[in-house]
């Protein structure tokens, strides 16, 4: 993938162009020669959020199968300790 990079100053001075580029692919923002941020389209961010939610959902299901407490059970346990 051919990554587009803006300096922080370029991003500030060409914000409209930055947004147009980000709609096509993620744009790296460099400050003092180091990558400090990425600008991504709303669609890419939504897809990323979905992947993260799916990942943690699978982790939670695996934990429950292994005998870890569910959210409700955890809350009940913590409440019992705090109210003891």
Q: Could you explain how this protein is built, in words?
A:
- Strand 2 (27-31) and strand 3 form a beta hairpin.
- A three-stranded mixed beta sheet has the order 1-2-3.
- With 84 residues, it is of the alpha+beta class.
- Helices cover 62% and strands 18% of the residues.
- The protein has helices spanning 8-13, 15-24, 42-65, 71-82; strands at residues 4-7, 27-31, 34-39.
- The longest helix is centred in the middle third of the chain and has 24 residues, at 42-65.
- The chain contains four helices and three strands, in the order βααββαα.
- It folds into two domains: 4-40, 3-Layer(aba) Sandwich (YefM-like fold); 43-82, no CATH class.
- The chain is elongated, with a radius of gyration of 21 Å.
Q: Which tags fit this structure?
A:
3 strands, 2 domains, 4 helices, YefM-like fold, alpha+beta, 84 residues, 18% strand
What count of domains describes the coordinates?
2
Count of runs of 4 or more consecutive helical residues: 4
Residue-averaged pLDDT, rounded? Answer: 93
Strand order of the largest sheet: 1-2-3
Q: What structural class results from the helix and strand content?
A: alpha+beta
C-alpha end-to-end distance: 57 Å
The low-pLDDT segments are none
Amount of beta strand? 15-25%
Mass-distribution shape: elongated
State the helical fraction.
55-70%
Radius of gyration: 21 Å
Largest sheet: 3 strands, mixed
DSSP strand count: 3
The SSE string, one letter per element, is EHHEEHH
């Amino acid at each position: 993938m051919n990554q587009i990079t803006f300096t922080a100053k370029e991003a500030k001075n060409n914000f409209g162009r930055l947004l147009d580029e980000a709609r096509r692919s993620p744009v790296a923002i460099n400050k003092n020669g180091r990558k400090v941020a990425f600008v991504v389209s709303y669609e890419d961010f939504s897809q990323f959020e979905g992947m993260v939610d799916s990942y943690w959902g699978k982790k939670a299901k695996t934990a429950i199968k292994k005998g870890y407490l569910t959210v409700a059970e955890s809350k009940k346990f913590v409440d019992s300790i705090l109210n003891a």
